[in-house]
Amino acid sequence: MKFLSLLAFVLTLTATTANASEPYVVQVNAHDYRFEMPSTMKSGWVTFDFHNKGNEMHVAILGKRPDDVDLATFKEAIKNLTEIPFESHGGPGLHSPGHASKTTINLPPGDYVLLCGTRNASGQSHFRLGMVHYFVVTDEPNNAPEPNADMTMTLSMYDVATDAPLKPGVNTIRIENQTGYYGDAHLVSLNGDASLATARQYLESLKEPAPPHFIGGIEQGNPDIIQYLTVDLEAGKYGWISHEAAGYGINEAFEVTAQDDATGIAFDEIDHEMTLEFSETGLDGPTPIPAGRVQIINNTLDERMHAVAIFRLHEGKRATEARDFLVGQMNNFDQGKLNMNEGLDRPFHDYQLFLPIHNPDNEVSVTLTPGEYALMCVGKLGTDEAHHQHGGLHTFTVTE
Q1: Cα-Cα end-to-end distance for the chain
Q2: Sequence-distant (≥ 6) Cβ neighbours of residue 88 within 8 angstroms
Q3: Cα dihedral: 81, 46, 152, 259 (round 10)
Q4: Cα 285-290-296 angle, rounded to 5 deg
Q5: Tens-place pLDDT, residues 62-92
Q6: Is the CB of residue 358 less than 8 Å from the CB of residue 305?
Q7: Any residues with CB less than 8 A from the CB of 195 and at least 6 apart, and which?
Q8: Cα–Cα distance, 147 to 136 (Å, whole number)
Q9: Phi, psi torsion values for 108, nearest 5 degrees
């Protein structure tokens, strides 16, 4: 009996050790317009094996129900398309039809939702068309190990760097978000006639028809969320790009090669500084400023908390038009419209970028190209006390 007990213990230990050395994989198939995936999974390091089996671009934004929000309120808020109360945990990035990748995230127990935020040809968000999936992460641990990375990529405010090059074959990338905000990064193939310019143009609206060269990435997660991306790459040209920061620094081409002298991507050097002054009378800053990598300095002269969004204006457009566009989007969302841009004309390039300079610990820099720009204070956005209604707008020119 003692021998049998000892044998059982050894077998149990051996099985546990073997299971603990294997990833815990959850299959996620994205269709037009639904997710095919389990409704429960174990807690710990979860690898989402994501496949786009639809005919449109898909993404998977992962959110966890906060502890102070009950499940009924959580689901009701998403159902009614009001402000979505979830903690951002990242998720698989943009995938063109037919593409697949693996994203690994450490998930604590709780209630979660998976959303697709891309749009069809009519401008309707996929999650408003039913591409929403709720699931539960149980208390039972999956015992999967943290992945071993081939390289680490760091997202800053707003730039990207890697500590090693990617090689042909299977690569696992550890992605650290040091933006102080919800950082995202998507991998695009630049082989053939594909380009980062085409990718940037798509990211302005996330609307079909979409380019065919997005092959995975990571979605927006809280700064303390570590994500791993595993992709199988052929030798060739690729690029990293961010939805929000594509026009301001997270927009980097590189080459995948087997050559030994290949290197990683370095952060850009700072070329200039730009000090913004916030006061009771409004927002002010220098103009013009030279193009290049610009460090944004916050000089707050009053007691209020300030934060800004930056826009690169279309020719002939004004800062007030950018403000009215954002307010119009909020109104459309509050009214439950399927297309947030309904009845609106976007007056700026790329995406409006939030600059979290209200936190003095944040080091914020952006890449600026020649053109007209607007800055808007988003303090109390959507209220009668909104700072942009009381002088919190500033227009400036970037020269060659």
Answers
A1: 84
A2: 61, 62, 63, 182, 219, 220, 221, 222, 225
A3: -110
A4: 45
A5: 999 999 999 999 998 887 765 666 889 999 9
A6: yes
A7: none
A8: 22
A9: -75, 165
Contact status, residue 245 vs residue 181, Cβ threshold 8 Å: no
Residue holding tokens 């005919």?
A: 55
Q: Which of 94-103, 253-262, 298-307, 371-380 has the lowest mean pLDDT?
A: 298-307
Tokens matching residue 95 = 């995938």
Tell which residue, 249, 245, 252, 290, has the closest CA to residue 272.
Answer: 290
pLDDT in tens, 277-289: 888 778 899 999 9
pTM for the model stands at 0.88
